[in-house]
Amino acid sequence: MQEPEEKKIALELLETEQAYVNRLHLLDQIFYTELMKEAKNGKTVPEEVVKMIFSNISSIYQFHANFFLPELQKRMEDWSRNPRIGDVIQKLAPFLKMYGEYVKNFDKAVELITVWSEKSPPFQELIADIQKRKVCANLTLQHHMLEPVQRIPRYELLLKDYVRKLPPESPDRDDAEKALEMIFMVAKHSNAAITEMERLQNLWTVYQRLGLEDDIVDPSNELIKEGPIQKISTRNNGTSEKYLFLFNNMLLYCVPKVIQVGAEFQVHLRIDVDGMKVRELKDTQFPHTFLVSGKQRTLELQARYGE
């Protein structure tokens, strides 16, 4: 008799989980452990660097090796009596939130490996030595480190397939559908963590360009748009180059610094978005001109291309 389709997918989940746990073992028990041992001896890089590279890989490894894989194995051995995996995956799903930290740290970790490989030849040699071992299958540390990043999307695909192949009357239908929903939420959580990290990094770069002024640095701000602008001077009938940063709550009117040591711009004026008005002007001498008026003051500005 042919195996039911849903059982084939459940077996594929078990087989890929076994291979995944082997990969996590390599990352945590071999790479991390050996690099940490050498770091403690003061031979390669600071211990902090090794910890930053591997983030929370130890927790991820322990969870999969000691909990999820054994639970799956037990369930597949008992399939003829209890053909279901939905409830096991429901137990797994909340723990997958710990991937947020690993995924968020991934780009930084890869960058640290590159930087310290150049700075510390013993560090580079140790990684190269481990990569030569049979267990690494001719793949680099960075390649192995990508596996946890790809694991949650893999669960989502397998589970989608599993739910699709389940007979309507299957005792696992409700649990499997609920499990799929939970995995989907975790995948979203993981992506949201990356998006938030990128937003904060970009925001911090902008704050540095503005000289880290105390009343401006706030992690909750959203940068909407930035760019050069011409300030129209009625006194001398000319324009001067300025720069605008529009946030969700304020408009910063800045002057580019001639000597760019530290900050790139000096904030000349801050206009609160609350109560701010923008009005287009019809000026033949200065096209694309508009007025920005706030509680603080009014500016007459000219955009370059009417954007």
Protein topology:
Elements: H1 5-40, H2 47-54, H3 57-77, H4 86-92, H5 99-119, H6 121-131, H7 141-165, H8 173-209, E1 223-233, E2 238-247, E3 250-256, E4 265-272, E5 277-281, E6 289-293, E7 298-302
Antiparallel strand pairs: 1-2, 1-7, 2-3, 3-4, 5-6, 6-7
Helix pairs in contact: 1-2, 1-3, 1-6, 1-7, 2-5, 4-8, 5-6, 5-7, 5-8, 7-8
Descriptive key words:
alpha+beta, PH-domain like, 8 helices, 2 domains, seven-stranded antiparallel sheet, phosphoprotein, 307 residues, zinc
Summarize this structure briefly:
The chain has 307 residues and is an alpha+beta fold. It has eight helices and seven strands, in the order H-H-H-H-H-H-H-H-E-E-E-E-E-E-E.
Along the chain, the helix and strand elements come as: HHHHHHHHEEEEEEE
Low-confidence stretches: none
What's the main sheet like?
Answer: 7 strands, antiparallel
Distance between the termini: 68 Å
Assembly of the depicted chains = single chain
- The CATH first-level class of the largest domain comes to Mainly Alpha
Please give the domain count. Answer: 2
Helix content: 40-55%
What is the SS-derived class? alpha+beta
Question: Averaging pLDDT over every residue, what do you get?
Answer: 87
Second-tier CATH architecture of the largest domain? Up-down Bundle
Radius of gyration over C-alpha positions, nearest whole angstrom: 28 Å
Describe what this molecule looks like in 3D.
This protein has two domains: 5-190, Dbl homology (DH) domain (Dbl Homology Domain, Chain A, Up-down Bundle), CATH 1.20.900.10; 218-302, Roll (PH-domain like), CATH 2.30.29.30. The protein contains eight helices and seven strands. The protein has helices at residues 5-40, 47-54, 57-77, 86-92, 99-119, 121-131, 141-165, 173-209; strands at 223-233, 238-247, 250-256, 265-272, 277-281, 289-293, 298-302. Strands 4-3-2-1-7-6-5 form a seven-stranded antiparallel sheet, with no helix packed on it. The mean pLDDT is 87. Keywords: Cytoplasm, Cytoskeleton, Metal-binding, Phosphoprotein, Repeat, Zinc, Zinc-finger.
